[in-house]
């Protein structure tokens, strides 16, 4: 079989999917918590493995899988070795994007925000390898988050949270 036949025959979005949660929350971190609990209950594989995108000095974008190690009411914590490309990239440009795809549920979460390397992480230190190793810890503080749900009958629904003057607003797209 030729490669393009193989690509064409690869199954996508097989379902069955949960219904889109019509509730909107005060902020996307609360919404994330609910979806994360659902992901655990639905036995999503590796729900903490996420794609983190950055941007370098030559304006070339980059991305890689990282693990979300913890969260609090303002953001998500990730960590990395210090001598790495992403550390230079984030030093150059704090804006990052995170993409999460939970295929078992047909769900995607897209996060845009700032990677803060100076944020306090004492309250989540027990969940970080940085407790025992000299790692770079970033707190990703979101400013825009989109929740995407594929529908069983085809198509999708999206709910977008945006931050306006420190207040979260949301809209169905
Ligand atoms: C499932 C998975 C989880 C990973 N988790 C991390 C992580 O939490 N932190 C990290 O720095 N790299 C992690 N990596 C490795 C990165 O994807 C990447 O290869 C490495 O960090 C170098 O990236 P950079 O050159 O862009 O800095 C993970 C890779 C995979 C496949």
List the helices and strands and how they pair.
Elements: H1 3-9, H2 28-41, E1 49-55, E2 61-67, E3 70-71, E4 76-80, H3 85-92, E5 95-102, E6 107-116, E7 136-150, E8 156-164, E9 167-172
Antiparallel strand pairs: 1-2, 1-5, 3-4, 4-7, 5-6, 6-7, 7-8, 8-9
Bound molecules: flavin mononucleotide.
What would you say about this model in short?
With 173 residues, the chain is an alpha+beta fold. Helices cover 17% and strands 40% of the residues. InterPro entries: Pyridox_Oxase (IPR000659), Pyridox_Oxase_N (IPR011576), Split_barrel_FMN-bd (IPR012349).
What descriptive keywords fit this protein?
173 residues, alpha+beta, Pnp Oxidase, Chain A, nine-stranded antiparallel beta sheet, 3 helices, globular, binds flavin mononucleotide
